[in-house]
Every structure is written in structure tokens, then in C-alpha cells.
Automatic annotation (TrEMBL):
Homodimer. Gene3D superfamilies: 1.10.238.260, 3.30.160.270, Aldolase class I. Pathway: Amino-acid biosynthesis; L-leucine biosynthesis; L-leucine from 3-methyl-2-oxobutanoate: step 1/4. This is 2-isopropylmalate synthase. Residues 390-514 are annotated as: Regulatory domain. GO terms for molecular function: 2-isopropylmalate synthase activity; acetyl-CoA C-acetyltransferase activity; manganese ion binding. It catalyses: 3-methyl-2-oxobutanoate + acetyl-CoA + H2O = (2S)-2-isopropylmalate + CoA + H(+). GO terms for biological process: L-leucine biosynthetic process. Its cofactor is Mn(2+). The gene is leuA. Belongs to the alpha-IPM synthase/homocitrate synthase family. LeuA type 1 subfamily. Keywords: Amino-acid biosynthesis, Branched-chain amino acid biosynthesis, Cytoplasm, Leucine biosynthesis, Manganese, Metal-binding, Transferase. It comes from the Bacteria. Catalyzes the condensation of the acetyl group of acetyl-CoA with 3-methyl-2-oxobutanoate (2-ketoisovalerate) to form 3-carboxy-3-hydroxy-4-methylpentanoate (2-isopropylmalate).
Length: 514
């Protein structure tokens, strides 16, 4: 079976999802998990975008040992030099150059003729090859580029020294037949094509990113680019977990495989969702909460008789384990530790003790504590952002005929205790107004969402918010059996992250790929 290389761009194209802005620690944590998942290549960012991006790419390059680390670059010497610097310390560095080739981009964005595009790309690839053994070239918007010109561009890239030519359907415009045909045409017509790897990079604007990528594989693509959970610009990119599971489930059809460690899929999905703040829809293929849930009586009956009647993938293949051991307030440290091991957590004694204390606190408020509760509890905080403001207490008064009112007590980093009261047009609004007074920060609430982590009236509620301050935005996450407390925690988490960003020079919120 043919090996398909997996190029993960969660940290670059995925980070271009609206509202997502990962800091260096978060990028490194995701990269290390991607390494465990076994992706072959990790695109860590766009170093020329800002010093902060460059530093994050460098941190990833130094941390990851078992995957090639890639930096994105426009076809300009300055960008290429920025990638060189950012990839110092990488075991297996690679540069990803791009230049748009479609008539629309040539005319309106670049204002360049075909010849000028060929020349600029040729120059950039040759310059990059002086410093990199591995150079990937992407004709941006290849999907809407004239096929004969795309063949010319690919031939030029091979001659100039590219080792991978990536075909992006930048705007998610094509259907599987058309996208597959590009690969077949390039394979059949471009001299020297056998010397390089061909790659596919699809966007999901019409919901066809996975189908298009699979069509590329059927027509000779060696590499698939995508992101975890399919995050990315607009409607997102190809979801890597879908490609891996399509190939693993239908080897008879695709005759191709990835070398991913499939058992790490669920964990990677959760981590990316948590750190990007992008919830995974319940019905998302492979990693959605309902992907393995059977609701109808007929299906349940079939499942009980023989799982394969309605299940084409066993959940444990992607690392989802249904543990039967339910804990409660009488459970001891030993049972708790066994549970953690069973769920795949490797914690040292101190972390187990810390988690056990949190578990006891939760078990006091909740009758039974299941896997989802424990997972949410252990993964609660978004990386160790310095806690400038911590919630001490919260008091809310609500009646459907009175004005909601909240009092919060906040502890500042210097130990000062600040108590503030405020009204609002709802309980959450009152809490947020009181927190604003206590933190003395002016922020704008851009997004608020709430979901239940487990089932039952006493389920843990998880709140996610996005706050904006000047041009910076930050997400926050809060967890509690009470949704008002979870709302307050999420808000303060985001305020703390805005502080952290202000104190980290060189951060940027938006990058331009023009
Ligand atoms: O979608 C796209 O065209 C890209 C390029 C930078 C490869 O992300
Ligand atoms: Zn893209």
C-alpha cells in the first residue's frame, strides 16, 4: 500500500480561523501532540508575519524531534530569510513558498502577467534552495488556474528545485472529479514529475475538502495537507482525522495508508478544540460527540446484537474508551489514580494530588463523576496564562421582575482584594459588568457560548468567551457545575490572556498573505 504523507497546517492555516490566536506555549503544546499523533510534517506558522510568529515557529522547531517543521513564505527573499531564521534548531526544516497563479489573482491581486509569475516563483525557489534541502511550492488558487499554465508552473518549480509541489484549492471551488483530474493531468504531462511529491491542499467552502483530497489520492497525490477538526480560513481545511480514517477504513478502495497513530486522534481533537476555542460540532465526522452515538431504537437493537450493523469504526480505534468505572464522593485516591491511568493520563504524584483535590471538590457538588467530567476538569485551564485576576466569590440576585445584580470578589496579582457590584440586563451581563469594574479593564464581549460537558441536571457547564480589547482578542474558558460561575471564570480567563498578550511583544492578530 502507498504511504500518504500528512502535512498538518493547524498552526498556520488553522490559526487563520476567525478569532483564533494561539500563543507560543499553545503552539508548542499542539505541535507536541501532533508529533504523538505521528503527522509527517507540521506547518508551524508564517515567520514574516511578525516577530511573535517567528518566535513561535522557532519554539516549535526546537521542541519537535520527529516531524519535519515548515515555515510559510511568500515568494520574496525577505520572507525566505525570516523562515531560515525561524527554523534554526529544526531537525528537518522545510520552507513552503507560495505565489498565486489563477487569472483572478494575477489580474486583481498581483497585477502580474503569466511570465512575471513564472519568473518570480522561479527566482524564489532557487533562492530558497540555497538554504533548504526541502522546498515546497504552492501555486495559490491552483484550483482556478488554467490547467496548461498549471502544468507550466509545475514544470518550472521542478526545474528550479522544488521537492514538493502542492496544489491548493484555495477557495474550495472544485468538485472531486475536477480536482482529481488536475493530479492526473500533472502526472501524465509534466516532465520530471516523478522526481517530486505532489500534494493536495483543500478548503471546505462547498463541503468537499475531504472528498477532493481523497480524489487527489486516487489520482496520485503523495501528501495531504489539512488541519485537526478541519479548522481554518472561512469554512476550514480538509480534516486530517477524516482522511486518516477514510484510508484506514477502506484500504480495499484506496490502497493507501497514513502512518498516523490513530489512537491519538480523539485526544488531539480535544486539545486543538480547547486551545483554539473552536468547539467541535456534535455531528462532526470521526470526532463529534455524536459520531458514535446511536439514538434510534432500531439502531440500538442492531448494535446490541452485532456492533458492525451500524458501526464502521470502533471508537477505541481513535482513542475513545468507554470506561465503566464511575467515581463519586466516596471514591478514594487509589480508584482515582486507576481511573486516570485508564483514561491515558500520565501524571506525576504532585499532579495526581492536585487533580484529586479538584475531583473531591467536584464530587461534593455532583453525584457521579464520569470520564467527561474528569477530562474537562484536568484540561480546564488554557495553558498556564499568568493569573492576574482570580475569582474569589460571586453572588447573583435574579428575579424575572427585578433587575439582575451581581457582586464579585476578585483577587489581583499583587494580593489586593477587590469587591464590586453591578446591575445588568441579565445575570451574566451583571456579572461581567461587576468584573469590568473590579479589573478596571475595558473589554468587549465578542462571543459567548455554553455547553454541557456531561449529562444530567448536575452536569458540568463549560463556557467559552472571546473578548476584544483594542485590536487584540483573546478567548477564555470556564468550567463549573454552575453556569454563572463558569461564565465568570471564562471571562476572567480571557481578561488574563489579554494581559498576557499585552505583555508579550511582537504578537499579531491578523496576518496578510498578499
Ligand atoms: O489555501 C491556500 O492556498 C494556502 C496557501 C498558502 C498554500 O493556504
Ligand atoms: Zn489554505
Amino acid at each position: 500500500m502507498r504511504k500518504i504523507y500528512i502535512f498538518d497546517t493547524s498552526l498556520r492555516d488553522g490559526e487563520q480561523s476567525p478569532g483564533v490566536n494561539l500563543n507560543t506555549k499553545e503552539k508548542v503544546e499542539i505541535a507536541l501532540q501532533l508529533e504523538k499523533l505521528g503527522v509527517d510534517r507540521i506547518e508551524a506558522g508564517f515567520p514574516a508575519a511578525s516577530p511573535g510568529d517567528s518566535a513561535a515557529v522557532n519554539a516549535v522547531a526546537r521542541a519537535v524531534k520527529n516531524a519535519s517543521i515548515i515555515g510559510l513564505s511568500r515568494s520574496r527573499e525577505g520572507d525566505i530569510d525570516a523562515v531560515r531564521e525561524a527554523l534554526i534548531g529544526a531537525q528537518d526544516p522545510c520552507i513552503h513558498l507560495f505565489l498565486a497563479t489563477s487569472p483572478i489573482h494575477r489580474k486583481h491581486k498581483l497585477r502580474m502577467e503569466k511570465e512575471q509569475v513564472l519568473e518570480a516563483a522561479d527566482r524564489a525557489i532557487r533562492y530558497a534552495r540555497r538554504y533548504f534541502d526541502k522546498v515546497e511550492f504552492s501555486p495559490e488558487d491552483a484550483g482556478r488556474t488554467e490547467l496548461d499554465f498549471l502544468c507550466e508552473v509545475t514544470e518550472m518549480a521542478i526545474k528550479a528545485g522544488a521537492t514538493v509541489v502542492n496544489i491548493p484549492d484555495t477557495v474550495g471551488y472544485l468538485n472531486p472529479q475536477e480536482f482529481g483530474n488536475i493530479f492526473k493531468t500533472l502526472k501524465d504531462n509534466v516532465p520530471g514529475i516523478e522526481k517530486i511529491q505532489l500534494s493536495a491542499h483543500c478548503h471546505d467552502d462547498l463541503g468537499m475538502a475531504t472528498a477532493n483530497s481523497l480524489a487527489a489520492i486516487l489520482n496520485g497525490a503523495d501528501q495531504i495537507e489539512g488541519t485537526i477538526n478541519g479548522i481554518g480560513e472561512r469554512a476550514g481545511n480538509t480534516a486530517i482525522e477524516e482522511i486518516a480514517m477514510a484510508l484506514a477504513t477502506r484500504p480495499d478502495y484506496f490502497n493507501a495508508h497514513t502512518t498516523l497513530n490513530l489512537k491519538e486522534i480523539a485526544k488531539t481533537s480535544r486539545l486543538v478544540s480547547k486551545l483554539t476555542g473552536m468547539p467541535v460540532p456534535g455531528n462532526k465526522a470521526i470526532v463529534g460527540a455524536n459520531a458514535f452515538a446511536h439514538e434510534s431504537g432500531i439502531h440500538q437493537d442492531g448494535m446490541l446484537k452485532e456492533k458492525t450493523t451500524y458501526e464502521i469504526i470502533s471508537p477505541d480505534v481513535i482513542g475513545l474508551k468507554d470506561s465503566k468505572l464511575v467515581l463519586g464522593k466516596h471514591s478514594g485516591r487509589h480508584a482515582f489514580r486507576e481511573k486516570l491511568i485508564d483514561m491515558g493520563y500520565e501524571l506525576d504524584d504532585e499532579s495526581v494530588n492536585h487533580a484529586f483535590a479538584k475531583f473531591k471538590d467536584l464530587a461534593d457538588r455532583k453525584k457521579t463523576v464520569g470520564d467527561e467530567d474528569i477530562r474537562a476538569m484536568l484540561e480546564e485551564r488554557l495553558i498556564d496564562t499568568p493569573e492576574v485576576f482570580a475569582l474569589e466569590t460571586i453572588q447573583v440576585s435574579y428575579g424575572n421582575r427585578s433587575t439582575p445584580n451581581a457582586t464579585v470578589v476578585i483577587r489581583a496579582a499583587d494580593g489586593e482584594i477587590r469587591e464590586e457590584t453591578a446591575d445588568g440586563n441579565g445575570s451574566v451581563d451583571a456579572i461581567y459588568n461587576a468584573i469590568d469594574k473590579a479589573t478596571r479593564e475595558t473589554v468587549e464581549l465578542e462571543d459567548y457560548s455554553i455547553k454541557s460537558v456531561s449529562q444530567g441536571k448536575d452536569a458540568l457547564g463549560e463556557v467559552h468567551v472571546v473578548l476584544k480589547q483594542n485590536e487584540q482578542s483573546a478567548q477564555g474558558r470556564g468550567l463549573s457545575t454552575d453556569i454563572l460561575e463558569a461564565s465568570a471564570r471564562a471571562y476572567l480567563d480571557a481578561v488574563n490572556r489579554l494581559h498576557d498578550k499585552r505583555n508579550t511583544p511582537g504578537r499579531r492578530d491578523n496576518i496578510s498573505l498578499i
